[in-house]
Design a protein that fits this description.
alpha+beta, five-stranded antiparallel beta sheet, five-stranded mixed beta sheet, 19 helices, elongated
Length: about 675
């Protein structure tokens, strides 16, 4: 509430102030009126009202209407006539506001030629609303006779047009430019204003007036308009317009000066024509200078930006001869600007880029296209540097190519880093391949002696077992168990090492049929339930091993007093299938979950539960190779849920596929 009340109060005060200013400017206009004492050459309230709407917005329109009503009623006009005139005036001001905002934008300050042209259009067109409506109200109220309708419309129209043309830019430019310029050059502006007013007084007061038809002396005031426009911008131009035209209006209204005629209507038209020409001269000159200054400032900014840029900039003419290089070019290449201007950039060639590539570049940019690529260029000291280049054509207003501009960035360090990375990756790939070959050779070669050890151990047990005591036979069993464990470990390691050597995972795999085979091979039909599963894209052998490891783990890790039950299911997610293998076995403590997918990590001894420590690491590698992922949820005593996410098969149906034969029932055929 503390913020709303002051805002409303400020709004009400602004309405009161604007209404008072409108009435006051109307009285001033009537004071300078002629042709019967009720026609003003410059209707000041029109310019003031349009300026107020441009600065404060349409919410000030009620104050404008009320001010027009009070000012008109004060002349003795009937209330009906005053209300009609006030409505016509308000419509005129709103139309002018809308036109200027549309063409000049919200920051309109009459510092562009387009803004001045919009002002001329608004001053020429929108007063028709007020003139036609207000004159009709005068005639309907009996204040003016109908035969005078069009004569009144003409003078009304021109008076409002002059007010918009002279007063609106004066108020708006001073309010909008004050934050930027403040009191700068106010001394010069005061001198200019006094000199312009003095010159206008001398010209229109009769001192320099030689005769009725002598208008040459009117040109004496134009240097002051140009002075204000060239030196002081829109503020100076509008101030000069005001200082020149006020004496012109006052003296002409009193029958003096260059435009005084016996017929006062003729004097009015001559005066208004002069005011329009003077205002346009000053406003257009100021706007053109402002646009030129903005363009020069932008050009200076761009020039400084290009010159101080860390990126190399080169500009050539259409024939490829250098016309400009920035400081970065000199610092990077060592070539001085005065030595290369006028030369073709071919002096940078190192021989790395072929002639065919240069021809393709030239064909592209001369056809109007942008070319991007890399160069290995030669520096002035004979060294080389890599550059990322962009070359673009520059066109004139007619669309003809006048220049080519090239921007280049030094990427020598990046290229060196890329080369080092490529070499490192090549070494890694070679080491990986060698490691895979060694792993395959080791696992494949060592299995042969293990089979021999196992075979001879069994042979000893059969032939000489009865000659050994219990301790000796125990040793033989331990040898056999160790041999079987080593063989299992080598098989798992070989599968793990050869994951990337098998064909790409690009076949359609029916997981339901695959799960049936796995459960049958594990002889666990009574302990595994397989729900409908999807068809995915992958490698059948690797997905089969993955299911074997996951289902086998679920069957293995259970309390000694009861077996566990495993469920294999799937659900559709946004970006693929989620295959879940859940059991109700021992479960896993949370602190161990993140470690389980690493190679050779086990939570139990071989005596408790047999295993190689390779299974989950293998499953992780397979899931990632298939473009998916794997994660695990578990709580001690609550079982474990392993989720394998696999992408969709674009050639497979989107529905889950039932298992061919219920694998939870006994007697499932293999």
């Amino acid at each position: 509430m503390r913020e709303v009340v002051p805002a409303r109060l400020r709004y009400v005060l602004s309405l009161v102030v604007l209404c008072a200013a409108y009435v006051g400017s109307a009285e001033l206009g009537f004071a300078m009126a002629f042709v019967g004492g009720n026609v003003s050459a410059v209707w000041l309230p029109s310019g003031l009202a349009v300026a107020a709407l441009l600065i404060g917005g349409v919410r000030l329109a009620p104050a404008v209407w009320l001010g027009a009503l009070v000012a008109t009623a004060a002349t003795g006009a009937p209330l009906f006539t005053a209300a009609g005139i006030a409505t016509g005036n308000t419509l005129e001001y709103l139309a002018a506001y809308a036109l200027l905002r549309r063409m000049g934008g919200p920051a309109l300050a009459f510092e562009r030629v387009g803004d001045v042209m919009a002002l001329v259009l608004a001053a020429a067109v929108t007063p028709a609303l007020s003139a036609l409506t207000g004159t009709a109200a005068l005639c309907l109220g009996g204040v003016a006779p109908w035969p005078m309708y069009w004569a009144i419309v003409e003078t009304w129209w021109l008076g409002d047009a002059a007010g918009i043309l002279l007063i609106t830019p004066l108020v708006v430019s001073w309010v909008r430019t004050w934050p930027r310029y403040g009191t700068r050059r106010l001394g010069e502006l005061a001198v200019m204003a006094v000199a312009a007013a003095a010159a206008a007084t001398a010209v229109f007061g009769g001192g320099l007036w030689a005769g009725t038809d002598d208008h040459v002396s009117a040109y004496l005031i134009f240097p002051f308009l140009v002075w204000g426009a060239l030196r002081l911008g829109a503020r100076g131009a509008t101030a000069a317009i005001l200082c020149v035209n006020v004496p012109a209006v006052i003296f002409t209204a009193h029958g003096m000066g260059l435009f005084a005629r016996i017929e006062m209507t003729q004097s009015l038209l001559l005066l208004q024509a002069f005011m329009a020409v003077a205002a346009l001269t000053a406003l257009v000159t100021a706007a053109a200078v402002a646009e030129r200054n903005v363009a020069h400032a932008r050009a200076r900014l761009l020039s400084h930006a290009v010159e101080q840029s860390a990126t190399t900039v080169m500009i050539t003419d259409p024939d490829g001869r250098l016309t400009y290089v920035n400081r970065a070019f000199t610092e990077l290449t060592g070539h001085r600007a005065r030595d290369v201007i006028g030369a073709n950039p071919r002096f940078l060639k190192s021989g790395h880029t072929s002639d065919a590539e240069y021809e393709a570049l030239w064909a592209a940019i001369t056809a109007g296209h942008v070319w991007r690529g890399e160069f290995l260029n030669r520096k002035a000291d004979g060294g080389t540097l890599w550059e990322q280049a962009t070359i673009s054509p520059v066109r004139d207003e007619a669309g003809h190519i006048t220049h080519f501009i090239g921007t280049k960035e030094d990427i020598t360090a990046r290229k060196a880093a890329e080369d080092g990375m490529r070499r490192a990756l090549a070494k890694v790939e070679r080491a990986k391949s060698e490691l895979e070959r060694v792993a395959y050779a080791v696992t494949h070669t060592l299995q042969e002696p293990l089979r021999g050890i196992g075979g001879f151990t069994q042979l000893i047990d059969r032939r000489y077992g009865d000659r050994l005591d219990d301790e000796g036979r125990g040793y033989l069993r331990r040898v056999l168990q160790s041999t079987e464990r080593m063989q299992r470990l080598f098989r798992d390691l070989m599968d793990y090492a050869l994951i990337d050597q098998v064909p790409d995972p690009d076949r359609s795999v029916d997981l339901a049929a695959l799960a049936r085979r796995v459960v049958t091979e594990l002889a666990a039909q009574n302990r595994v339930t397989v729900e409908p599963l999807p068809v995915v894209q992958g490698n059948p052998a690797q997905l089969r091993h993955l299911l074997t490891h996951l289902v086998g783990n679920g069957l293995t890790y259970h309390p000694p007093d009861r077996p566990s039950h495993v469920t294999v299911s799937a659900r559709r997610e946004a970006d693929g299938w989620c295959l879940t293998v859940a059991d109700d076995g021992l479960g896993i403590a949370p602190q161990y979950i993140d470690r389980l997918f690493n190679l050779f990590v086990r939570l139990h001894t071989e005596q408790e539960f047999p295993g190689s420590g390779v299974g989950l690491a293998y499953c992780r590698r397979v899931a990632e190779r298939h473009g998916g992922s794997i994660d695990l949820e578990s709580e001690p005593g609550q079982g474990t849920r392993i989720h394998v996410r696999l992408p969709f098969d674009p050639h497979a149906p989107a529905d889950l596929v039932p298992v061919p034969v219920p694998v939870a029932a006994e007697g499932v055929p293999s």
